[in-house]
Amino acid sequence: MDAVRVGINVEVQAFAEHHLPLWPRTGHEVWAELRSRRGVALITPPSVEQPDADAAAVASLFASLVHDDPVPVGLTLAAFDHAPADSEVFTALLGHAVLTDLDVLFDVDLHLDPLRLLRRLAASRAGVVAVWPGSVQGANTRYASPGHRDYFEARLSECLLLHPRSTVFDDQAPFDLERLP
Questions:
Q1: N or C: which end of the chain has fewer CB within 10 A?
Q2: With contact defined as beta carbons under 8 Å apart, do 39 and 122 qualify?
């Protein structure tokens, strides 16, 4: 089944219906959906070659909604003096709502499936938002190029994709939402 892309560009209608600014209401609605499904939302950059600063800004906005700071995974795992086992990575990231700098999770020496890890974290914490470092096309994601040591390819399902977008006003949702069945 193809992904369903839902534009969150309905600020005027939302204001008229709810008399509340679309942002942060939309962010709270995403968190509520993640909590109810114990799901994962991936913030996607426009391209791997040109990571978007807006992705980091969206991560910070989502973290502020749950009174947290985005956690850089690479920096967190750099504290280990050895290649951490799956259980150590899980424990180090457990309890954090928003994760950034996920590139280290693709290191083959860690023997991790980054999506599986995010799903386990989401199930333990009632939802996780992460800045995804790979490319996403439809419901397919890829990290690195075929033949590269850290190459990863997977089909995404049962997650939300948050595509950062520029806004004119502070109360606009800073992303378009895509729900993957």
A1: N
A2: yes
Within 13 Å, how many C-alpha atoms sit on residue 77's CB side? 25
pLDDT digits (tens, 9 = 90+) for 19-59: 568 899 999 999 999 999 999 999 997 765 555 678 999 99
Q: 90-147: per-residue pLDDT in tens?
A: 999 999 999 999 999 999 999 999 999 999 999 998 899 999 999 999 899 999 999 9
How many domains are there within the chain? 1
CA-to-CA distance for 153 and 104, rounded, in angstroms?
Answer: 15
With b for 16 or more beta-carbon neighbours within 10 A and e for fewer, the 69-101 pattern comes to ebbebeebbeeeeeebeeeebeebbeebbbbbb
**Distances from the Cα of 61 to the Cα of 5, 81, 97, 124, 174, angstroms:** 21, 32, 12, 22, 9
